[in-house]
Amino acid sequence: MTSDFFSHMQKRGLIAQVNDAEALIEALRKPHDNKSEAFPGVYCGFDPTAKSLTLGHLVPLLGLRRAQDHGMRPIILFGGATGLIGDPTGRTDMRPMSTKEDITRYIENFSNLVRRYFRFDVPNTPIFVNNLDWIGPMSWLDFAREIGVHFTVAKLLSADVNKSRLEHGLTFMEMGYQLLQSYDFLELSRKHNCILQTGGNDQWSNLLGGTDLIRRVEHKQAFCFTQPLIVDSQGRKLGKTSGNAVWLDSSTTSPYDFYQYLRNLSDETVEQTFRQLTFVSLAEIRELCAPTANPNAAKERLAWEVTALVHGKEEADKAVAAAHALFGGGGDLSSAPRVQLGKGEVESGVDIVTLLAKVGISPSKGEARRLVQGNGLLINNEKCSDVGYKLRMQDFAQECGGMLIRKGKKDYTIVELV
Description:
Shape: globular
Number of helices: 19
Order of helices and strands: HEHEHEHEHHHHHHEHEHHHHHEHHHEEEE
CATH topology of the largest domain: Rossmann fold
CATH superfamily of the largest domain: HUPs
Strand content: 5-15%
Radius of gyration: 24 Å
Largest sheet: 6 strands, mixed
Structural class: alpha/beta
Oligomer: single chain
């Protein structure tokens, strides 16, 4: 069954680069029994550089689940050590360094977030590891002698992951990141029969470093492939570094906002996103995304599928109901995004510009003023173009339980009085 994994990933367009496709296919064909230690392992690492994982992380997470469904053992690595350094990939400046306490908290949240994507009722249950367990106890001298000896400075400097930082001051700490990630693959190869590492398309150099280290130290072949990145409408990687992250944690991105992001994807990206972020069959995806099909129906289905996967079917249904209510003029608004305002502020005469900035609907009063002056704001479905408009108590006496603010065409918020 493991032999079908690579084919499955290829058919869904989920492999961008691979170091040796023929040898990997052959390795996956090797028979093994169902003993726990016999399953070939596949891993991907996730560095705890923020409280939550992002929508972009869902691609490799689901890749690990697909591997599990095809008889491999998924290994989810949390970078308790690598998170202390930070991957320089795609950056022009050094990452802000998190405290050890923050990283511990982030990993706890990561662990809670990712468990829902895997099966625990099968022999090849997932393994969760933290690379601080083997990197932390190792001295610098031991690491330099055992791992660093296999990497040349010239090779490290030529790696894509380091090129973006060279002109802006690549630090010794950051240059060592690739060595640490490579060492992770070596350890997992030794301890968990891990033969394959996956990652985003921007991780190619780091992944190759691991396969090369295993070849040099263990004298055996290991494999890696990258997966296409999720990008926004400007073609930028969706993530923390780009500042356009959509988070998997509902306390950071609400299920409604999560649903709306996917619902508003461009027509051109819907089919590929279906392939990357859902388990919908290819035949059904082709039918949903056919030239003669309704693109809005495809987007709604995509948004529901991914929201249900991340937040559960109940939250996905609530998001759909809220969207239909907001855009269709009726229905259940209980799951629409909400913010709160003190009743005393209304009684003291707060104006609309101050409100928009205070509750975060606009990033500043200047932006709020331009929004109102540009006729881009509706209050309870009525256009508001008066920057001096003072809010009244009756503005909040709506069926939705507060005041309905619409910014632009699709950005709705309910402001509740407390």
